[in-house]
């Protein structure tokens, strides 16, 4: 099988999940190639994958001769290269708001709780699963508290994070919410986040991007 | 004093430093308002500042009635609102590369070593300055190793991260380099990073954005 767009990802990677949502929202078909993040010490550390992405992280998107890394840069690229069904609003202020909401998740929540950081907490601080859970809930909770305020207090919030069209912000929020539920973060304090996530997950573009819907997801987990 | 652009920042904040570079590269005058991140438990946690940025982080840029947060979103906004002296190349592939290099720093290095994370390591893992230093050098080193490979192996790298014009990527790299030297990360393994940083710091736009050049920098530290 050859495809114009090839996505290297992992079913449960938050960053790969974002890009799947963006591809689906734009109606772009792609070939999915799994990079198992845990098996054999992690396929992302293989020479073959490192040649694509020296950061040894997923996702990586191939488009023709372009090798694209960093999920936020990839989603912006998709909006640049395939302008239909834009992921950003058409005014500078709206774009700034959507990018800020997206980056609140992509910069200030997700990287702190990423697999490699949890592995380091285990190896250097003897953190067990309970301590890793406390760490994860703390940072997701801090971020969601701010995000809830920003969403609930703005007239620009609509059915989705920004108005009634899903954007880059929703593509970041939904995977982070999925991660939060894995860590059993109570959601009572985040009604607006919950409402927006529910609206997103009612759409095929989001549902089909979910970890459980991926070919590399284990039958049960 | 009134100003069209008001930047809330802190002399040594990496994220505020990025935005100062971007403002200077575009030749935009701005009023600087200091938010002391340490004094009295941190002015970023005050009610007054939280009303501007519920994340309680710097920077925050005010432009007319726009309140902008997240340094990457702010820099993209500046490029949107003030197109002269662009911070991104004019081709989609180039923009994706610059954004990926910028986000490597902004997502995968900086947030993991940010003040609030180091404070948490101290309060929850009894990490002292030596352990915080080891943590910081580890994550900056991981990121710089990948960044060095990406810069050294690409024909698109020029005098700066992308060609011969400073971009969003340089605006992220220079503050992260400054932070790396604070933590005494050896730079021998990163000759391309070193060369690019030196080229940047030879420009007024970068020099005038440096922490030591800010009005709120202490006389000696």
Describe the 3D structure.
The structure is a homodimer of 221-residue chains. Chain A is α+β, with helices and mostly antiparallel strands. The first copy, chain A, has two domains: 81 residues, Glutaredoxin (3-Layer(aba) Sandwich), CATH 3.40.30; 115 residues, Glutathione S-transferase Yfyf (Class Pi), Chain A, domain 2. Chain A contains nine helices and four strands. In chain A, strands 2-1-3-4 form a four-stranded mixed beta sheet, with helices on one face. In chain A, helix 1 runs antiparallel to helix 7 and helix 7 packs across helix 8. The radius of gyration of chain A is 17 Å and the shape is globular. The model of chain A has no long low-confidence stretch (mean pLDDT 94). Chains A and B meet through strand 4, helix 3, helix 4, helix 5 and helix 6 of A and strand 4, helix 3, helix 4, helix 5 and helix 6 of B.
């Amino acid at each position: 099988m050859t495809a114009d767009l090839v996505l290297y990802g992992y079913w449960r990677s938050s960053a790969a999940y974002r890009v799947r949502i963006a591809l689906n929202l734009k109606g772009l078909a792609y070939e999915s190639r799994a990079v198992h993040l845990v098996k054999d010490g992690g396929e992302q550390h293989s020479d073959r994958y490192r040649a694509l992405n020296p950061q040894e992280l997923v996702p990586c998107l191939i488009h023709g001769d372009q090798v694209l890394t960093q999920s936020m840069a990839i989603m912006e690229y998709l909006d640049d290269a395939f302008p239909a069904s834009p992921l950003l609003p058409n005014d500078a202020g709206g774009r700034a708001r959507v990018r800020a909401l997206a980056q609140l998740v992509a910069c200030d929540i997700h990287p702190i709780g990423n697999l490699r950081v949890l592995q380091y907490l285990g190896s250097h601080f003897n953190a067990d699963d309970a301590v890793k859970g406390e760490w994860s809930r703390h940072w997701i909770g801090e971020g969601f508290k701010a995000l809830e305020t920003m969403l609930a207090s703005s007239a620009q919030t609509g059915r989705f994070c920004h108005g009634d069209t899903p954007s880059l912000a929703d593509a970041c929020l939904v995977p982070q919410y999925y991660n939060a539920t894995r860590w059993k973060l109570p959601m009572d304090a985040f009604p607006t986040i919950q409402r927006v996530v529910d609206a997103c997950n009612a759409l095929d573009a989001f549902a089909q991007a979910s970890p459980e819907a991926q070919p590399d997801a284990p039958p049960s987990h």
